[in-house]
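Kindly review these tokens for lecture notes.

. . .
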Amino acid sequence: MQARDSAVKQEEKAHAAAAGPYGSAPQYEYQIGPDGKAYAIGGHVDVGVSLSGSAEDKERALATLQNAALAPNAPSGADMAAFRQASLQRATIGGDQPKSIPGYGQPQNDANDIFSIYA
């Protein structure tokens, strides 16, 4: 369990560092091990990006999200889903409305869209 704890924390710290001021502090899900200690078994970093403003602002925000998603040495399936979501959004910049992939990584509000990147 110590190895998983270390890997989860390292991955979430990488996401947070790449997200910079747009990212939340890592949030962890813990499980109590046989030794009575709490070990991180999962986690996530919320990345808040504004999809309003100029095309350049949107491009910069979505590039930040993509970089944060791919920050760990071995991005997870959820990380890749967040990357694909941002890629799809970037492809529609200048179009009518950004499209979204149902499920993972959906924006949670209109002013600043928040995507979560999970371990």
About this structure: The longest strand covers residues 38-49. The chain has three helices and three strands. Strands lie at 27-32, 38-49, 113-118.
